[in-house]
Write a structure and sequence with these properties.
mainly alpha; 7 helices
Amino acid sequence: MIWPAAAPVLVDFTLLLLRLTIGVMFALSGFFKLAKPERGQKMARSLTDAGLPTGLAPVIALGELLGGVGVVLGLFTLPAALVLFVISVGAMVTTSIPNAKGSGIHKLENLLYAPEAILAAALLALAALGAGGWSLDRALF
C-alpha cells in the first residue's frame, strides 16, 4: 500500500506550499529591512548586541530578499535555502538562544518554540528534498 503523501502531486503541492510560506516571509522581511530604515536599524542594533558589525545588516537583508525570491520561484533552491538556513541559525544564535527563558530542558523547549528553529529545520528539508515538480529548477534543469 502506498502512503498517500507519496503521491507525486501531493509532494509537489506540499513543497510548493513550504516554498511559498518560507520564501514570501523571508523576501518581505528582507525587503522591509532595506526599504524602511527603522527596520534595518533594528537589525543593526541586534547585530551590535551580538558583537557583530552593523555593516552586515544590509547584506543579511539582501540575502533574505534574494533567498526568499529564489525559494518562492523554486530557482536555485538549494543555495537559496542554505543561505536562508544560515540566516536562521544566525538569528537563533544572536536572538533566540539569549532570549530563551528557563534553564536546561525548559530552555531547550522555549528555544524550539522560536520561529527560527522551525524555519531552520524546514529549510534543511527543502534543501534536501529540492523544490519539487512545480518549480523553475525542474523546468530549467
